[in-house]
Amino acid sequence: MSGEKKEDLATVASPNGEIIDDSHDAVFGEITEDGPNYRAVGWKGTAVLMMKTQIGLGVLSIPVAFDALGLVPGVICLCAIGGITTWSDYIIGVFKLRHREVYGIDDVGELLMGRPGRILLGTAFCLWWVFVAGSGMLGISIGLNAVSAHATCTAVYVAVAAIVAFLFGSIQTLGRISWLAWIGLFCILTSILIVTVAVGIQDRPSAAPEDAIWVPDYKIVNNSSFTDAISAISTLVFAYAGTPAFFSIASEMRDPTHYNKALILCQSVVTCFYLAIGIVIYYFCGSYVSSPALGSAGPVVKKVSYGFALPGLIVSTLLFVHITGKYIFIRMLHGSRHLTANTVKHWVFWLGCTFGVTIVAYIIASAIPVFSDLVSLVGALLGTPMCFQPMGGMWLYDNWSKGKSHRTLKWNLMVCWCVFIIIAGFFLMIGGTYGSIVSIINSYNKSGGSAAWSCADNS
Questions:
Q1: What residue spans of 368-451 are helical by DSSP H?
Q2: Has residue 429 been placed in a domain?
Q3: 239 and 61 Cβ atoms separated by less than 8 Å
Q4: Structural domain contains residue 99
Q5: Mutual angle of helices 409-447 and 71-98, in 10-degree steps
Q6: Helices and strands, number each (H, E), in the chain
Q7: Any stretches that span the bilayer, and where are they (predicted)?
Q8: Do 288 and 215 form a contact (C-beta atoms < 8 A)?
Q9: 326: part of which helix (H) or strand (E)?
């Protein structure tokens, strides 16, 4: 291995002080000049990849969630979910350093529950990210429709989104994708800031009636039904549901000991940004806030904001395709030299995985009626249990034995916290699933659902 290659691979210490040579990785095996360097993401690149998995589709629905809950309960719920998921993300970093062989949440499932746990969490991981990738393709089609004033059939735009996601999602390593994440993050933040400023200086939101004096009708506390409230909370969870991808991102870090630094930067920026746009847009738009929020300030601002948002939506979608394809790819070639060597078999399997994920996501985005509500259902059913319950189990797995010999106050409090996290996760999963099912039924009864491969304008 050349000196240049070795500089890309850090030698770090494990928690017990053991020096680890990262030219051999517990997940990827031998990293040589003959193939891609999977361990090439610095801490800043890690932070931006984390932020891009979080800030994407979910952020556009936060003002609508505040409308359902009310301003104060919305802020409290957002901060609570942000705090819990930050702890969950922290546990991922700790667990990864202690168990270097862990690549995905399915590895955690096997440690906690044996082979059934691996199958259960591995399947949930794939389904979750494939559905989110499909949602991303639909989001890109909305943006293209908004910018072009519906210049062509929406089904064409979804197909274009799928092609772009496959091409860029097939870049081999997250280290090579991180520069795209910087662009995507800048664009999505800019687009939302444009809308946030626009709603503050305009007379009224675009959906408000024109024949009356406009007074913001925001509510400090809203008396919403259980179904509406739990669906809104599920939306807030969705905004932080990049958590399961953090396993993959941590595995490709050049120096995993810098994980916490990247995590603090990510969650601080994400939470402050969510609070700012949620409060400002809901304050000025009230019950007339649009979903997605980019349409709240009228047609001109909508075009401009979606013009900036498109690169961000594209980067989010290609990340979802890449992470899901990489997970399947590693599971298929784990332990084989083809995993880290640029052989024919390597490229056939890699492109086959990303192409397969893209096709399934495209079919989901195009063919399933009542799609947005279905994504909410999958988010509650699959997204929530990957952000809450496993992390409580991970802490207990590493620390339960310590309580047998010496139970401290800290140990007792942490056990109670982990039990709370697990119970809260199941509550949100069951409640959110119920709320989503009710919403699907109501939407279908009202409109009959959306047509498969529809040409209708969805912006």
A1: 371-378, 389-399, 402-405, 409-447
A2: no
A3: yes
A4: yes
A5: 120
A6: 17, 4
A7: 72-92, 119-142, 148-168, 180-201, 229-250, 262-284, 304-325, 346-368, 374-397, 409-430
A8: no
A9: helix 299-333
Q: What are the beta bridge partners of residue 25?
A: 29
Query: Which residue spans within 11-117 are E strands per DSSP?
Result: 11-13, 19-21, 24-25, 29-30
Q: What is the extent of the structural domain holding 89?
A: 38-368
DSSP notation for 253-307: BS-GGGHHHHHHHHHHHHHHHHHHHHHHHHHHHGGG--SSGGGTT-HHHHHHHHH
User: 264 in a domain, yes or no?
Assistant: yes
- The token duo for 176 is 């090579």
Comparing CA positions, the residue from 332, 333, 331, 323 lying closest to residue 354 is 323
User: Is 64 within 8 Å of 274 (Cβ atoms)?
Assistant: no
CB atoms within 10 A of CB 19: 8
Overall domain count for the chain: 1
What is the rounded distance in angstroms from the CA atom of residue 37 to the CA atom of residue 172? 9
Best CA proximity match to 136, nearest among 454, 361, 407: 361
The one-digit pLDDT tens for each residue of the chain (459 residues) are: 333 343 444 444 444 444 445 567 888 887 777 788 898 899 999 999 999 998 876 787 898 899 999 999 999 999 999 999 999 999 999 999 999 999 999 999 999 999 999 999 999 999 999 999 998 898 899 889 989 987 888 889 999 999 999 999 999 999 999 999 999 999 999 998 998 898 888 877 877 777 777 778 889 999 988 988 998 898 899 889 899 999 999 999 999 999 999 999 999 999 999 999 899 999 988 888 887 778 777 888 889 999 999 999 999 999 999 999 999 999 999 888 888 888 999 999 999 999 999 999 999 888 875 656 666 777 788 888 899 999 999 999 999 998 888 889 999 999 999 999 999 999 999 999 998 888 878 777 776 555 667 787 776
198: its two tokens = 């626009």
Q: Say if 401 falls within a structural domain.
A: no
> In the 8-state DSSP scheme, what is residue 41?
B
* Of 394, 429, 428, nearest in space to 414 by CA: 394
A 10 A CB-CB count for 283 gives 16
Nearest to 204, CA basis, from 192, 190, 214: 214
pTM for the model stands at: 0.90
DSSP state of 339: G
Distance CA 14, CA 22 (A): 11
- Token pair of 268, please? 């601080």
CATH code of 305's domain: 1.10.4160.10
